[in-house]
Recover the amino acids of this structure.
Protein backbone atom coordinates (compact mmCIF):
# COMPACT_ATOMS: atom_id res chain seq x y z
CA UNK A 1 0.00 0.00 0.00
CA UNK A 2 2.93 2.35 0.70
CA UNK A 3 3.86 2.59 -3.02
CA UNK A 4 0.30 3.45 -4.02
CA UNK A 5 0.08 6.16 -1.36
CA UNK A 6 3.34 7.75 -2.59
CA UNK A 7 1.96 7.90 -6.11
CA UNK A 8 -1.33 9.46 -5.10
CA UNK A 9 0.43 12.03 -2.93
CA UNK A 10 2.73 12.87 -5.82
CA UNK A 11 -0.27 13.35 -8.11
CA UNK A 12 -2.10 15.57 -5.62
CA UNK A 13 -0.33 18.77 -6.71
CA UNK A 14 -1.25 20.63 -9.93
CA UNK A 15 2.37 21.57 -10.65
CA UNK A 16 3.49 17.95 -10.43
CA UNK A 17 0.74 17.01 -12.89
CA UNK A 18 1.98 19.77 -15.19
CA UNK A 19 5.52 18.40 -14.94
CA UNK A 20 4.36 14.89 -15.84
CA UNK A 21 2.40 16.17 -18.82
CA UNK A 22 5.38 18.06 -20.30
CA UNK A 23 7.71 15.14 -19.63
CA UNK A 24 5.36 13.00 -21.70
CA UNK A 25 6.49 15.07 -24.68
CA UNK A 26 10.25 14.89 -24.09
CA UNK A 27 12.93 14.73 -21.40
CA UNK A 28 13.75 18.09 -19.80
CA UNK A 29 16.28 19.56 -17.41
CA UNK A 30 15.37 21.51 -14.28
CA UNK A 31 16.02 24.88 -15.92
CA UNK A 32 13.62 24.08 -18.77
CA UNK A 33 10.90 22.90 -16.39
CA UNK A 34 11.44 25.97 -14.21
CA UNK A 35 11.11 28.22 -17.25
CA UNK A 36 7.90 26.58 -18.46
CA UNK A 37 6.18 26.50 -15.07
CA UNK A 38 7.53 29.91 -13.94
CA UNK A 39 8.42 28.52 -10.51
CA UNK A 40 11.54 28.77 -8.37
CA UNK A 41 14.23 26.20 -9.09
CA UNK A 42 14.07 24.93 -5.51
CA UNK A 43 10.31 24.38 -5.84
CA UNK A 44 10.71 22.48 -9.10
CA UNK A 45 13.50 20.39 -7.59
CA UNK A 46 11.27 19.41 -4.67
CA UNK A 47 8.46 18.44 -7.05
CA UNK A 48 10.87 16.36 -9.13
CA UNK A 49 12.15 14.62 -6.03
CA UNK A 50 8.63 13.61 -5.00
CA UNK A 51 7.81 12.36 -8.50
CA UNK A 52 11.05 10.36 -8.64
CA UNK A 53 10.43 8.85 -5.18
CA UNK A 54 6.97 7.77 -6.35
CA UNK A 55 8.50 5.96 -9.34
CA UNK A 56 6.86 8.24 -11.90
CA UNK A 57 10.03 9.80 -13.34
CA UNK A 58 13.73 9.09 -13.44
CA UNK A 59 16.79 11.19 -14.15
CA UNK A 60 19.98 10.82 -16.11
CA UNK A 61 23.12 12.95 -16.06
CA UNK A 62 24.00 14.51 -19.43
CA UNK A 63 27.10 16.68 -19.14
CA UNK A 64 26.23 19.60 -16.90
CA UNK A 65 22.51 18.84 -17.09
CA UNK A 66 20.31 16.26 -15.44
CA UNK A 67 17.51 15.17 -17.75
CA UNK A 68 14.21 14.10 -16.23
CA UNK A 69 11.89 11.76 -18.07
CA UNK A 70 8.85 9.60 -17.54
CA UNK A 71 9.90 6.28 -15.98
CA UNK A 72 8.67 3.64 -18.39
CA UNK A 73 10.75 0.86 -16.84
CA UNK A 74 7.69 -0.64 -15.17
CA UNK A 75 9.60 -1.49 -11.98
CA UNK A 76 6.68 -0.09 -10.00
CA UNK A 77 3.45 -1.80 -11.01
CA UNK A 78 1.27 1.07 -9.77
CA UNK A 79 3.21 3.87 -11.45
CA UNK A 80 3.27 2.01 -14.78
CA UNK A 81 -0.53 1.78 -14.78
CA UNK A 82 -1.01 5.40 -13.71
CA UNK A 83 1.43 6.69 -16.34
CA UNK A 84 -0.39 4.73 -19.01
CA UNK A 85 -3.68 6.35 -18.01
CA UNK A 86 -2.14 9.82 -17.69
CA UNK A 87 -1.25 9.82 -21.38
CA UNK A 88 -4.92 10.52 -22.10
CA UNK A 89 -5.70 12.73 -19.10
CA UNK A 90 -5.80 16.54 -19.11
CA UNK A 91 -4.77 16.94 -22.75
CA UNK A 92 -7.57 19.45 -23.37
CA UNK A 93 -6.82 21.47 -20.22
CA UNK A 94 -5.90 25.09 -21.07
CA UNK A 95 -2.93 25.21 -18.70
CA UNK A 96 -1.52 21.92 -20.02
CA UNK A 97 -1.90 23.20 -23.58
CA UNK A 98 -0.15 26.46 -22.65
CA UNK A 99 2.72 24.51 -21.05
CA UNK A 100 3.10 22.41 -24.18
CA UNK A 101 3.16 25.53 -26.32
CA UNK A 102 5.98 26.94 -24.15
CA UNK A 103 7.74 23.59 -24.49
CA UNK A 104 8.06 24.22 -28.23
CA UNK A 105 10.23 27.29 -27.62
CA UNK A 106 12.14 26.42 -24.44
CA UNK A 107 15.88 25.94 -24.99
CA UNK A 108 18.30 25.03 -22.21
CA UNK A 109 21.22 26.77 -23.91
CA UNK A 110 19.33 30.07 -24.06
CA UNK A 111 18.12 29.73 -20.47
CA UNK A 112 21.57 28.94 -19.10
CA UNK A 113 23.12 31.92 -20.92
CA UNK A 114 20.78 34.50 -19.40
Amino acid sequence: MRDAIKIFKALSDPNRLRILKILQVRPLCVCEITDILALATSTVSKHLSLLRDAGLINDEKDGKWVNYRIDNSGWNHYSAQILSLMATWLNDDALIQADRKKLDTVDRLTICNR
Summary: The beta strands are 28-29, 57-62, 65-70. The radius of gyration is 14 Å. DSSP finds seven helices and three strands in the chain.
